[in-house]
Design goal:
alpha+beta; BirA Bifunctional Protein, domain 2; two-stranded antiparallel ribbon; about 15% strand; globular
Length: about 350
């Protein structure tokens, strides 16, 4: 389950502008009035599943026209070369949902976090075009300023805080998980399918956390397979590392505080990794014991005579009763007894 959520700023100082960004993600052809250039990505529409603009209620007509919208944004920032004109978000979508369900995720996210707060957001959903066939992803191009009347107001600096980014990541993970849960609750869904979908929902709800945190969540709910996968795919920064160039540099510069923080962080990572490994081993051991107990119960049930639900008798007991009734209604005659012989052996035995 590949999780990806990346946020960047469109910056003129890096040769970027909002017109080009909007044309690229919507696979559109747009005219940049400020530079006179035409940005044309219309020949690459094969992977475009959905695109649209989410503007606040009562927004002017130009806010729902892609070319007019982003030219208005660029004009609002003037000709200053170091302006930031828009915010770009690229986020991975679950590959085992339908296009309609992926669209629900994108629409809910855009409405809750931007449109309802006065921002305009231009969105697009792309299908995998090459390489990884699971690579469904969404693009969001968000205005840096909130809509005020017929124009834009001041920039909202709270959008640049780490807490805001963490909140966005959390909402995205929850929206993805929500679609799996809704699918599981549909009428006619089998018990096995429900269990699988609910498990996937839980995995997505915590997919924005660190690998160690995801491991702990997975172990808490008994999802050993996912916990093991998280442990194996820890990012390079989270894996316990040996002394490197950065630590050596701190030692040479005599930065004791930073060095202590680095060593404590490494020790904490090592402790977490060890705890997760031990917990996984214990869970695997418990699963093995449960499987053995299940097999033993199955073996016992195969050799234990089953009882009739109405009479409470075993099959053998029922057969004995039937045999007794047959003997009672059909007594053995004298001729049969003579044929068997006095000793009951069935007649004369061959002489040795």
């Amino acid at each position: 389950m590949p999780y990806h959520f990346d946020v960047k700023i469109v910056q003129r100082s890096k040769g970027q502008n909002a017109i080009a960004a909007a044309a690229y993600q919507a696979r559109d052809l747009l005219h940049d009035l400020r530079t006179g250039l035409i940005k044309d990505f219309s020949k690459e529409r094969d992977d475009l599943i959905f695109d649209g603009i989410f503007a606040p209620k009562g927004a002017p007509a130009w806010a729902n026209n892609r070319e007019q919208l982003w030219n208005t944004v660029e004009k609002r920032e003037g000709d200053t070369p170091n302006r930031q004109t828009a915010r770009r978000i690229v986020a991975a979508l679950p590959n085992d949902l339908s296009d309609q369900q992926r669209r629900y995720i994108v629409s809910n996210f855009a409405n809750k976090l931007f449109r309802e707060k006065g921002f305009i957001v231009d969105v697009a959903i792309h299908a995998p075009s090459h390489g990884d066939e699971r690579n469904y992803h969404a693009h969001f191009l968000v205005t840096m300023r909130q809509l005020k009347g017929d124009g834009f107001g001041n920039k909202d600096r709270t959008q640049n805080k780490q807490d805001t980014l963490d909140h966005w990541r959390d909402v995205w993970a929850r929206e993805c998980g929500k679609q799996f849960e809704l699918e599981a609750k549909k009428a006619g869904t089998s018990a096995d399918a429900q269990a699988r979908l609910m498990q996937e929902a839980e995995r997505w709800r915590h997919s924005h956390l660190t690998a160690h945190e995801q491991c702990e969540k997975a172990l808490a709910r008994g999802d050993a397979d996912y916990a093991e996968a998280c442990l194996e795919t820890l990012s390079r920064d989270e894996r316990p590392r040996h002394k490197g160039a950065y630590e050596t540099k701190l030692e040479r510069q005599g930065k004791t505080a930073e060095l202590i923080d680095l060593k404590e962080a490494r020790a904490e990572r090592e402790r977490c990794a060890e705890m997760v490994t031990l917990a996984m081993a214990e869970m695997r051991s418990h699963e093995t014991a449960q499987e053995a107990a299940t097999l033993q119960e199955a073996a016992v049930s195969e050799v234990t005579p089953k009882k009739d639900e109405d009479t409470g008798e075993t099959v053998n007991q029922q057969l004995e009763c039937v045999a007794a009734e047959v003997c009672q209604h059909h007594p053995q005659g004298e001729e049969d007894r003579e044929r068997q012989g006095d000793d009951g052996t069935g007649g004369d035995m061959p002489q040795r």
